[in-house]
Write a structure and sequence with these properties.
With 125 residues, this protein is α/β, with parallel strands linked by helices. The chain is built from two helices and eight strands. It has helices spanning 16-26, 70-79; strands spanning 9-13, 30-34, 37-42, 45-51, 61-66, 98-99, 108-113, 119-124.
């Protein structure tokens, strides 16, 4: 039934202008504006970002960015003023990256938040 339609995800925020500055300005993503919100152009498709009157940030990772070199990506985020989250009980390296590959426990990953508090990640498998 839905196998031949175009699909995309949506992400709520509490401040559309702050989201535009963050995703376009700090992360460098291409953004298309429309009356209902923002469309982020991602390598694998699009993400619709809209202002939600009853917004609550997601308590889980809503968007993952696969990167070739996680240390370079972490440094680029830091240069843009974006700090990686440091979750208690997780072994972080000096730049906030959790080294899952060394431990045989998944990818190397670092989490960060958008201005609305949604959790995003950079990861290297």
């Amino acid at each position: 039934m839905l196998t031949s339609t175009h699909a995309f995800s949506g992400l709520g925020v509490d401040d559309l202008d702050a989201a535009k500055q963050f995703y376009g300005g700090k992360l460098g993503l291409t953004i298309d504006e429309n009356p209902a919100g923002l469309t982020l152009r991602l390598p694998g498709g699009t993400l619709f970002v809209y202002q939600s009157p009853s917004f609550t940030p997601a308590g889980y990772t809503v968007l993952n960015f696969e990167v070739e070199d996680i240390d370079v990506a972490a440094a680029e985020l830091a240069a843009a003023g974006i700090e990686l989250e440091r979750y208690e009980g997780m072994p972080h390296s000096h730049n906030g990256v959790v080294r899952g590959r060394e431990a045989g426990q998944g990818p190397d990953i670092g989490w960060f938040r958008d201005p609305s508090g949604n959790i995003l990640s950079i990861l290297q498998g």
